[in-house]
Amino acid sequence: MPSKRPLLEILHRYRWRYALGAVCVVATTALRLTIPRFLWSGLDALSVAQHAQGTLSAAELSRLEGVVARAALWIVLAALLQAPVRTASRLAVLGASRRVAHDLLQRVFDVLLRLSPSFFLRNPTGQLMSRCINDRNFVRGLSGPVFMYMAETITLYAIAVPLLLSIDARLGGLALLPYPVFLVLARVIARGIQEEARLAQEALSDVSEKVDESLSGELVIKTLAIEDSDYARFDERCRAYRRHNLRVAWLRALLTGSMMALAGLSTTLVVWIGGPRVVRGEMSIEDFGLLLTYLAWLAGPTRTLGFVISSMRRGLAAYGRIAEILEAEPELADPPRVGPAPTVGAGALSLRGLTLTYPPLSEQPHLSGSLPEHLVGSAQDRPRTVLRDVTLEVPAGTTLGVVGHTGAGKTTLARVLARQLAIEPGQVFLDDVDLCDYDLAEVRRHTGFVPQEAFLFSATLAENVALGRPDAPREEVAAAVRAAQLQQDLDQLPQGLDTLLGERGVNLSGGQRQRTALARVLLLDPRLLILDDTLSAVDPPTADAILAHLRPFAARRTTLLVAHRLSTVRHAEQIVVLEDGAVVERGTHAQLLALGGRYADTWRSQEDGAAQARRARELEPRGEPS
Amino acid sequence: MSGPDRERREGGLRDDARLAVRLWHFVRPHQAWLWGSLVLLLLASAAGLAQPWLLRLVLDQHLAPGKLEGLGALVATFVGALVLELVLRSAQGLLLEVAGQNALLDLRRAVFRHLQRLATAFFDRTPTGKLIGRVTTDVEALQELFASGVVTILADLLTLTAIVGILLWMSWQLTLVTLLVVPVLLAVTIFIRRHVRDAYGVMIGRRSRLNASLHEKSSGMSLIQAFRREADMRADFGEDNAGLRDAELRTVLWESVLSTATDLLSSLTSALIVWYGGGLAIEALGLEQAAAELRGAVTVGVLFAFLQYMDRFFGPLNDLSLKYTVMQSALTAASRIFELLDQDQVLPEAAQPVDPGPPRGEIRFEGVTFGYDPAQPVLRELSFRVRPGESVAIVGATGAGKTTILKLLSRLYDVQTGRILLDGVDLREYALHDLRRRVGIVPQDVFLFRGDVLENIRLGHPEVSEEEARAAADQLHLDEVVARLPGGYRELVRERGANLSAGERQLIAFARVLALEPGVLALDEATSNVDTRLEELLQEAVATVMGGRTSLVIAHRLSTIRDVDRILVFAKGRLVEEGSHDELLARRGAYWRLHSMQFSEPA
Ligand SMILES: Nc1ncnc2c1ncn2[C@@H]1O[C@H](COP(=O)(O)OP(=O)(O)OP(=O)(O)O)[C@@H](O)[C@H]1O
Ligand SMILES: Nc1ncnc2c1ncn2[C@@H]1O[C@H](COP(=O)(O)OP(=O)(O)O)[C@@H](O)[C@H]1O
Ligand SMILES: [Mg+2]
Ligand SMILES: [Mg+2]
């Protein structure tokens, strides 16, 4: 069970509102309870008079009229008093509940901002969204309506029970006898509701995740014409959600049913036992009526109590799911420190036996429902090593080319250096300081990382380029755009640099996206430049032009260049070939060619393809196109 | 990071009625549950209404005159009514829940189905997060309407009628006085409704915005962190979050006003009854017993019952006006959902699809002009032909429109002028489904589904057996790659396949299409992240698998395209050259320029 601390803290923030709300609830309830006194005193007077039907004097009748008028007046008065107080209580409590929901969500977002990429890898976005929005709505119910009903119920009980007992202790006590038994029963059912509600909320998350997936994969679904099977997957999740909801409804019906039975039982006891006593004259009809009325007051909240308890449990279940996010630990965090924080210097990199192992599935922290249970304990539930003992020295200002087969670990290496993947300390040193000893922000400030897959935000192109420096002057943005060879595409975009991009930049071509992502880092002044196969979707002439612009930029920085096209890395001071996470070859382009290993093989087959082209160019008398 | 905020007024009473009719469409298939629930509810209400009546009898006939005999039977009847009410009410609630949940399920399905039909152009400009909210949260808001709406409202109305009947029978003067309040309540409700509706409209708009913002920010979180924009994103999100809160606070305000108003009115009516009814009773007291009975005068018991009925009268009446408010939230959500369902950006399907016969794999573009924005053509007057069985490469600078050609070929968008023929038939005359089965596109942007590797290869095609899928994958040498994964072909694939390397993802997406053995294979930079050795192996594999079938290849690495029959060179949406590799090199035109630089020594 996750801790309730965060919720309580937020509730505490609004304690005065809740206090005001509670006071108002008590006041209105008390006011309302005085009404039956007057009503019944009026009725009692009338009913006594009824015995003397037809024989009443005019004075007698006008006295009765006075009693009745007073009762009516009091009701009006009480109602007028009640109105503002009631409004105040609603505004205070319901208002607070919206604020609580807001604060809670803001807190969740703050936590999300700190969580590492691995968290977002393991927990699908659609699921997170459902926790943030759908579960939030139930917490809102918990901190608002549920609180009000609870306060009202408790007040009613607190006022009506003593009154009940003061009228007739024995009879009142008897009427209250069934309560404890039923409340215990209610607890048991309520627990069932909470568990089932949690499952229902989880199922709703699954629905949300599926919708996200189907919308994001819309192109693939269409081109493969798999709408039907995709729909079937969605449908299955919706059905699961309905199933859990109906189970919750069952339990709720059980709960409200038993609460209604409780209310009925009390009334019956009073009528059964009290009725004869009134007849025998042991009890006044006024007392009897009051007893019944107070019981009726109790019956109202008792009936709704079932509903309130079930809402409360659903709210708690929802809160539990939100709290899970709040309790998630970021894998990457600033180290605890006493002295001053180290700062990045020239950017000399030193990798000393870097090994990276992903823990087995079952040992990776997941939010509930994110880990496919059937894989726990299966063959693939074992650790996976993707970087093995990588030892490298990259002097400041030099370029390291990284090549290797698909899945060799190039991206993994890049992400370790960009502080996106957690590593054990003592393996990577930046300017002779352990990478793990830096504050995250410090490393990130000095790192320009272009991931393999360009992610763009739905903002303008210029805003996307200026992601790292939102206040960069327009000319600098334009310069970065030019260096990334994006200038030539601007006239194809409706508003040039101010074109609003769609989600993930859908309205750009693949190469345009890559170049935008590249332009982002060109606008920065990083010590460490990490380019992960960032020109794969760019045509060769453009790529060459980019590289030409990049060379002076990279020359002043420590650069990690990942590529499949060897022409991209051939000028690097040092090139390593990764195979299954280990460095198998290293050296300069010439050295590697001389070595005659993997690198040389790859070079030859890529070279082969270009040979004809080159021959053709050599035939051209005034050849060199600029 | 921001989108236009849609906050506007909407919905008169007539719109509500229209919405209700459309919603009824989803409830209708489940109406049996509803009617069952209604019947139970009426019975339960009858049992409930009997209770004050019985208590009145206890008072009037036994307690006041001091008569004991018969009291037991009366109390037993009372208990019976109680139990009956309890059982009926529980059962009724359940039936209602079933009806509601079924209707919600149908609505979700309908929205999802509609989303599937919507054209790609729609998704180009609609944030995913917003649509997710429509299918989950907004549909959820209708629960209230389905669960308590229809039936309870009907029942409330019936109960009200019944009570008015009983009241009239007990004392018509008193009843008329009591009913004075109804028009007032109605006026108040209608007045406030307007504000409530507006407030909810704003709220739902802001919630959509928050959804979209949250979705994008969690998808791009690693980038936000890498570029240290946390503080800005926090502020940005905080603004959306506060916007939602403020909108919600407005709804609270109006709800509270309405609830107070109805409460006040009901108390005033009680006072009226006491005062006026008391007066009548007193007047009756002045008469002889017989005369009083003759005139059916108001007795104390009547007064008591009257007051109790008033509670039961105002209960539903208050409820109705409150429910009507709650329903405003549901109706607003419903109107947004229907807005989505009314979104008609769907590619028109041929009413009588042509049967194009067995696939041959001939593609013809005839004077095709297309722009995502019609004012800005991406492809201009494009004409070319791919013969059956031919392998053709498409090359050109980035942004030249290569991907766009393939998108048009599988009819994700419709051309603006000209036409595209596949096997001699205009794409628009195909059934979409048939067309897309004929053309297998390995897209530039790989998308994998949550599940495992094999599931992703077989994706939605039960006719592809597990063995066939493996065979297709092995042909692409995927086995070699997959062998490195702990789970092999059963390796868990996370959201978008983010736990796999880019090359691995491309290979899986490739195998997925190859397993379907399409008549036309189109590769859009399908191996751009794959290493050279694998790429060459793939090329050979594709040549054998596709042997004799048409293929279109977009690639930048020259090595990938040198063996094709013909090369089409594009620049800025126009076909500028075509011919075989050697011909084009000999021509020393655009193609030659495009590729002569590869591996050139830097100046
Ligand atoms: N979060 C993860 N959990 C487990 N395995 C992972 C995870 N991320 C990546 N891998 C695996 O680690 C291996 C190396 O991945 P990486 O992305 O570094 O390869 P790469 O060299 O960049 O390949 P490519 O050239 O295809 O981009 C791959 O086999 C991949 O499946
Ligand atoms: N969904 C879209 N909406 C608007 N414009 C788009 C969309 N997709 C691509 N474009 C634009 O169309 C042009 C051609 O894109 P594309 O066909 O993807 O190029 P490529 O030749 O690199 O594959 C580009 O200028 C791009 O910005
Ligand atoms: Mg990679
Ligand atoms: Mg493209």
What is the fold's blueprint, element by element?
The complex is a heterodimer of chains A (626) and B (603).
Chain A: H1 5-13, H2 15-51, H3 58-114, H4 117-122, H5 125-143, H6 145-167, H7 169-176, H8 178-216, H9 218-223, H10 227-279, H11 285-326, E1 349-358, E2 384-394, E3 399-404, H12 410-417, E4 428-430, E5 433-434, H13 440-445, E6 447-450, H14 461-465, H15 474-483, H16 487-490, H17 510-522, E7 528-532, H18 540-555, E8 558-562, H19 566-569, E9 574-579, E10 582-587, H20 589-595, H21 598-619
Parallel strand pairs in A: 3-8, 3-9, 6-7, 7-8
Antiparallel strand pairs in A: 1-2, 1-4, 4-5, 9-10
Helix pairs in contact in A: 1-3, 2-3, 2-6, 2-11, 3-5, 3-11, 5-8, 5-11, 6-7, 6-11, 7-10, 8-10, 8-11, 10-11, 15-17, 20-21
Chain B: H1 13-27, H2 31-63, H3 71-117, H4 120-125, H5 128-170, H6 172-179, H7 181-219, H8 221-226, H9 230-285, H10 289-294, H11 300-342, E1 363-370, E2 379-386, E3 391-396, H12 402-409, E4 417-422, E5 425-426, H13 432-438, E6 439-442, E7 451-452, H14 453-458, H15 466-475, H16 478-482, E8 492-493, H17 502-514, E9 520-524, H18 532-546, E10 550-554, H19 558-561, E11 566-571, E12 574-579, H20 581-587, H21 590-596
Parallel strand pairs in B: 3-10, 3-11, 6-9, 9-10
Antiparallel strand pairs in B: 1-2, 1-4, 4-5, 7-8, 11-12
Helix pairs in contact in B: 1-11, 2-3, 2-5, 2-11, 3-5, 5-6, 5-7, 5-11, 7-9, 7-11, 9-11
Bound molecules: adenosine-5'-triphosphate, adenosine-5'-diphosphate and magnesium ion (MG) (2 copies).
3D structure, described in words:
The complex is a heterodimer of chains A (626) and B (603). Helix content of chain A is 63%, strand content 9%. Chain A has helices at 5-13, 15-51, 58-114, 117-122, 125-143, 145-167, 169-176, 178-216, 218-223, 227-279, 285-326, 410-417, 440-445, 461-465, 474-483, 487-490, 510-522, 540-555, 566-569, 589-595, 598-619, and strands at residues 349-358, 384-394, 399-404, 428-430, 433-434, 447-450, 528-532, 558-562, 574-579, 582-587. The longest helix of chain A is centred in the first third of the chain and has 57 residues, at 58-114. Chain A has 626 residues and is an alpha/beta fold. Chain A starts with a helix and ends in a 7-residue tail after the last helix. Chain A is elongated, with a radius of gyration of 37 Å. Chain B is an alpha/beta fold. Chain B is built from 21 helices and twelve strands. In chain B, α2 (31-63) runs antiparallel to α3, α7 packs parallel to α11 and α9 packs antiparallel against α11. Residues 1-9 and 599-603 of chain B have low confidence and may be disordered. The chains are: A alpha/beta (626), B alpha/beta (603). Chains A and B meet through α2, α3, α4, α5 and α8 of A and α2, α3, α4, α5 and α7 of B. The structure holds adenosine-5'-triphosphate, adenosine-5'-diphosphate and magnesium ion (2 copies).
